[in-house]
Amino acid sequence: MEVKNRYTVIKHHIEDAPKESNFELKTEAFALSLEPESDDIIVKNLYISIDPYQLNRMKSFNSSQGTISFSVPIIPGETIDGAVIGKVVASGNAKFQKDDLVLGVFTWAEYSLVKEGNIIRKIESTEFPLSYHLGVLGFNGLSAYAGFFELCKPLKGEKVFVSTAAGAVGSIVGQYAKLLGCYVVGCAGSQKKVALLKEKLGFDDAFNYKEETDLNSTLKRYFPEGIDVYFDNVGGEMLEAAVTNMKVFGRVAICGVISEYTSDGKKASPNTLDIVYKRINIRGFLAADFLNVFEDFYTKTSDYIRTGKLKMIEDLSSGMESIPSAFVGLFKGDNIGKKVISLA
Amino acid sequence: MEVKNRYTVIKHHIEDAPKESNFELKTEAFALSLEPESDDIIVKNLYISIDPYQLNRMKSFNSSQGTISFSVPIIPGETIDGAVIGKVVASGNAKFQKDDLVLGVFTWAEYSLVKEGNIIRKIESTEFPLSYHLGVLGFNGLSAYAGFFELCKPLKGEKVFVSTAAGAVGSIVGQYAKLLGCYVVGCAGSQKKVALLKEKLGFDDAFNYKEETDLNSTLKRYFPEGIDVYFDNVGGEMLEAAVTNMKVFGRVAICGVISEYTSDGKKASPNTLDIVYKRINIRGFLAADFLNVFEDFYTKTSDYIRTGKLKMIEDLSSGMESIPSAFVGLFKGDNIGKKVISLA
C-alpha cells in the first residue's frame, strides 16, 4: 500500500530569525510496506517536538569559522529529523511490532522510514499523555534535571534564577528547584507567562524582561543577596546580568542561548573579573550526555507528576501545516511551555 | 630605635593602564621597637611580590555596578598590602622570634608592622632561594597547581594551551603539563619569551601573539585537533579564540584576565554556541581557595625543583624605587617570569 506522505523542509539555509516562508511542505509517494529483507521500521508519526536548537542546524557553516559544526546540518529540500513519537505501521525488526508506540529521532513528516538505531525506546506505559514523553519525561525534562541537579549541584535554600522560565525546559527547572526548597525567580516575555510562573508553577517571583530597561538592576532587585544558580536558556544580555549578580561560587548551566541563535543577536560578554573573583563556574551541556541518569530522572519525575507536584505545560498545534508557524513562534516567544505538533 | 621607613602608595585611583607617575614613594618615621603590651611583629621586608591583580584593587568602585568589589580596595595615599617575605626585627608574639623569616601579607615598604593573622607561615628551609616562596613555591605556584590539576583535571596526552606562558603562573602551568605528558603550546609577547618557552621550559611549541593577526587561525594551526585545556591569564580575544578552538568537553581555568584589567581592554565574548555544543566548562578561581592542597603542591613542586625538572623564572628589580616601573611593566609585558622586588 502506498500513501501520500507530507514532510517539511527548509527552502534554503536560515541565518537570521526564521520566517514561515523559509519552509515548504512537500509531498512524496510513500510505501507502507517493507521489502522482504529490510530490517527497518515504518512509523506513523503522532507528535513532533519543536525545539529552538534546530535553527542552529539550519545555518550554513563555512569551514573558515574554526568551530565544529553543530550536530548534523539540515540540508535545504531534505527531510528534517528531530524528536518524534509515532506508532509502528510495519516492522522488519523483531524488536518492534505493529502498533508499538515508539519515541525516537524521526522526521518532520506524517510517516517516517526508520532504522533501529534511531528508535530511542518503546513507550510501554500510557499512564501519562503521550506527548509528555517529548517534554517533561523526555529530553526537555532530562535537560532540566541534568543541568540543574548534576551540573549546578544546588542546595536547599539557594537562590535560583531561570530564564525562558515559561519554556519547555525552564518551566521544569523552576519546579525542580522549588521541590528542592530553593528560592526561585524566573523571567519570561509576557505578563501571561509571568502569571503562569507565579500562580500555577509556584515560582517565588517572576518578571517580564521586556518591561525592564536595566537587567543588572532588575536582578539586583530580585536577588539582593545574589544568585547561586543560573539556569540559562537565552545567553546575551541576560547572561551578562546574571554573572554580574552571581554570588561567590555561583554556578551557571548553559542549556541554550536562544537570543544568540540568530545573527543579529547580541553576543554575551560576561564580566570575566566577576568570573575570576567570584569563582564562577559556567558550563554548557547537552542532555544526551546524561543518559546515565535517565532512569533516575524518569522515576522521580513520573512520581512528581503522578502526585501533582510537577506540572507539564504544553503548547500544542495541529497538523503538518502548523510546523512553520510553530517553529518561527519559538523565536518570538509565542509558545507557552513545550511546543508540540500533534498529528494524532 | 626609629628609622625612616619608605613605602609606596598610589596618588589616586587608577582606571586605565597604570603609569609610573600614578605612584609615590613616601617616608615615615617608624619605631623598630614595640610597646610592652603589643603582640604585633615588626618585619624588615626582603622580597616584595609584584602581581597584576593589584591593579583591580586600585580602581574606584561605585556601588551602582552591582558587582562585589574585588577584595579590599587600595586607598590612595595609604600603604599597599601584598605578598612579602621579611625577617622579624622585633616580636611581641611568642610564636615569632627575632631573625625568623616570614611570608605573609605585609606592605610595599621597607618595614612593616604586622598582626599575627597576616603572617602566612615561617620559612624554615633555606634550601631554595627565598624569593621562590613568592613564586613557584608560593601563591603563583599554587595558582598553577590548583587551576591546572584541580580544576582542569588534565590527562596525559591532552592538548594544553597556556597564555602569558612566560609569566609567573603560566611558566609553571606549562611545565606541570609537560611533566604530566601533555602536549603544551604557550603564547607570549616577544620572541625572547617564545625562545625561553621552547628552549628552556620544554614547551612543545610557542608563539608571539603580537605577530599574529587572526588568533582563531593561529590556534587552529597549533591545535589542528583542538584544545582540551586552556589555562587563561589574559581574557579578551585570546579567550574567545581558545573557546572557538576547544575540543568537546574542553576545560578553561581563568586565573586572570590581564588584558581586561584596564578599561580600554576588549571584553571577551566567547561563543556561547561553542560552550553549549562542545560542553565547555569555564571556571574562575583564586589560589586562596585551595589551601587544602598546599602541602601536596609544595612537596611535589619542591621535588621537581630539586631534581631539575621544574625551573623558576624570576625577574628581580632592586629597591623601593623600582616598584612603580616593575608594576607598570607587568601590563606592558616587560617582565619575564615572576616579578619580585628585592630589598635584601
TrEMBL record, chains A, B:
Keywords, comma-separated and alphabetical: Oxidoreductase
Domain Enoyl reductase (ER) intervals: 19-341
Oxidoreductase recorded as keyword: yes
Molecular function GO labels: oxidoreductase activity, acting on the CH-CH group of donors, NAD or NADP as acceptor
InterPro entries per record: ADH-like_C, ADH_N_2, ER, GroES-like_sf, MDR_fam, NAD(P)-bd_dom_sf
Protein name, as recorded: Enoyl reductase (ER) domain-containing protein
Species of provenance: Psophocarpus tetragonolobus
